[in-house]
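Fold this sequence, please.
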Amino acid sequence: MKTIKGPAIFLAQFVDKKAPFNSLEGMCKWAADLGYKGIQIPTWESFLIDLDKAAESQDYCDELLGTVKSFGLEITELSTHLQGQLVAVHSAYDLMFDNFAPDNLKNNPKARTEWAVETVKKAAIASKRLGLKTHATFSGALLWHTWHPWPQSPKGLVELGFKELAKRWLPILDVFDENGVDVCYEIHPGEDLHDGITFERFLKSTNNHKRVKILYDPSHFILQQLDYITYIDHYHEFIKSFHVKDAEFNPNGKKGVYGGYLDWADRAGRYRSPGDGQIDFKTIFSKLTQYGCDLWAVMEWECCIKSPEQGALEGVKFIKDLIINCTDKKFDDFAGRDLSEEDLKNILNI
């Protein structure tokens, strides 16, 4: 068994032009004052980390670590969710995902993909310089538009899609392996890795690359009506990163899993602040602890009702109360004693 570390917080959704959310020092102080022990850093926010410098300079990384540690915090992972998304983009989404790319790469999908690949590789080197063992990202998607196909998918389409996705990621995975860092793909709708089957397809397509791991976020599973508890039983050995984000699913006679193109607040499935949804986090923390998953519990705020400030404040206590301090004692040890083999035979009457 292993005690989960935390509470930690993913900074991405809290970034703002206003202080304290517009500087690394400001966000660190804010998170530490709330009681967080770790931060997950979105690498696309250059005021939080200069990824180019971090990949080139140990001195810069040492400075960055010094700043974070001065507030009593640790870095849990670097995140390249947006850059990872750009490793594989179907042309139907080009215009929307161009927003994630530098201005000079917009309207140039080939150059954008090349930039994304190199950027995620830099995150591998930066992670090593920062002493990190895990990294959080998205897989991107070439097949997402076919997830409920009409007409039906042509034979071989899915296999080819995962072959191409693996082809793009294998050079990146090799760089992560050289730097001793696991790549934790957030299993997420909109990505080609969105459930257990698709994770297994990708893993197989990479020839079971040792760095292919999972960022477990149960909120994405309740919206799919997937058993997020049993998922841990199947994939606990791959779960190396963990987002604590709640969700609820309330279908009725007019709307269900597909969402009806509604805004988040009006969907049957919607994300909520930790503790406000339907997810059984108590069982999740128990299973992850019992399986010895070595990870941080990272609060991610995505709620269509509650403010981020209130979500962050409540998230600290929510996670603290769920973390299980593992025991090295058995509750009935007091009643036992050592017996000889002869005594054991007598008990069995043999």
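Residues 5-348 form a domain with the TIM Barrel fold (CATH 3.20.20.150). DSSP finds 13 helices and ten strands in the chain.
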